[in-house]
Amino acid sequence: MVSTRPVAVLTYEDYARTPDDERWELLNGELVMVPSPNTFHQSAQVGLGWRMARFVEQGGLGRVFFAPTDVVLSDTNVVQPDLLFVSTEREHIITHPNIQGAPDLAVEIRSPSTAERDLTIKRRLYEEHGVREYWLVDPDAMTVTVLLLGEHGYREAGAYRSGQSFDSPTLEGFSVSLDEIFQP
Q1: Cα 173–101–138 angle (5° rounding)?
Q2: Using CA atoms, how far apart are residues 77 and 79, in angstroms rounded to an integer?
Q3: How do beta strands 175-177 and 83-87 pair?
Q4: What pLDDT sits at residue 3?
Q5: Staple partner for 105: which of 1, 27, 85, 98, CB 3.0–4.6 Å?
Q6: How many angstroms separate the Cα of 36 from the Cα of each of 40, 42, 69, 182?
Q7: Per-residue pLDDT band at 21 (split at 50, 70, 90)
Q8: Residue 114's Cα: distance from chain center in Å?
Q9: Residue 86: what are its φ and ψ, rounded to 5°?
Q10: Long-range contact set of residues 116-122: C-beta below 8 Å, sequence gap at least 24
Q11: Which of 103, 97, 101 is nearest to 85 (CA)?
């Protein structure tokens, strides 16, 4: 006879009690500590985020946020994408403490400690909750994969590597060279 212990499913209320000086995400009711990113990760985040924010602001398209910004997808799922975009039409999901619902675009900059989670759990959560566009940015491989939500889930809209530029279906007209964001 196999005995299993019941697993406690945590909620946003539990998440809200975590220390402010630590980064956590709530994934399917489980608290997961998010380690501090390395400098290459942060450099890619700033390079890409600055370009996104400038493009969005100049076009009056909405708002761009950097991690750590809580995105409450459900009572048991709170994520902190490295970058996120909320369109003007959906700004009602922006509240003082957090984002209440799926952003239009989420960006995860992969690191060795988060790569698997970004590719599986977070991809599935973003898909289930309706994040229209998801970018997987890999500073080590110097690649960007753009996923677009369709009727049957995410499909790859493009995979880009060093020496190429990529654009965004959601941020129409936004284009950036990978060499500009992956500066050593």
Answers
A1: 55
A2: 6
A3: unpaired
A4: 52
A5: 85
A6: 12, 9, 14, 19
A7: confident
A8: 12
A9: -120, 125
A10: 117/27, 117/32, 121/27, 121/28, 122/27, 122/79
A11: 103
Three-class SS string for the chain? CCCCCCCCCCCHHHHCCCCCCCCEEEECCEEEECCCCCHHHHHHHHHHHHHHHHHHHHHCCEEEEECCCCEEEECCEEECCCEEEEEHHHHHHECCCCEECCCCEEEEECCCCCHHHHHCHHHHHHHHHCCCEEEEEECCCCEEEEEEEECCEEEEEEEEECCCEEECCCCCCCEEEHHHHCCC
- Six token digits for residue 52: 């996104």
Is beta strand 30-33 parallel, antiparallel or unpaired with respect to 24-27? Answer: antiparallel
- What is the mean predicted confidence (pLDDT) over 127-135? 98
- Count Cβ atoms within 10 A of the Cβ of residue 91 and give its class: 0-12 exposed, 13-18 middle, 19 or more buried: exposed
Query: Who's near 10: CB < 8 A, 6+ residues apart?
Result: 26, 29, 30, 31, 76
User: How many residues make up the chain in this entry?
Assistant: 184
Model pLDDT for residues 153-166, shown as the tens digit of each residue: 999 999 999 999 99
Q: How far apart are CA 167 and CA 34, in angstroms?
A: 28
